[in-house]
Amino acid sequence: MSPVGALREQLAEVLAWHHASAGFDKAVEGLAADLRGRKPDGLPYSAWKLLEHMRIAQRDILDFCRDSHYVEKKWPDDYWPATDAPPDGKAWDASVAAFRRDRAALQKLVADPKVDLFAKIPHGSGQTLLREALLVIDHNAHHLGQLIVVRRLLGAWE
CA separation (Å) from 156 to 10, 13, 114? Predict the structure, then answer.
């Protein structure tokens, strides 16, 4: 395998990394509906706010990478949900499913040998697919840790 092929494989794997941490799936599974919108004392966010923020940001980066007509969102308003709690259980499930779908789409994109990881994204300001994939990895790891802290403080983590 070429070095670039190995990099593609590693990026695709790390987007769903769970070797050195709990991983997204474990962090969102089994959280009681009544805890999803609760903010632990001293923290400014709930599990719902973190989940939705991760989903929105990941989708935004995916759109930026794929859509030549991408329109930049307004920070921070467009990147965080307006409410602490999901409107219902279906909204939580839909957000989790959308996060997984977009993560899979990013994995497919970075693994595609027809896509140049190092080429500047034409409608960007110097970003590359490699940079955007690393940004998603870093951003998701950061907020995944926060999500686990929220669960611990709510007594909903092992």
Answer: 32, 27, 43
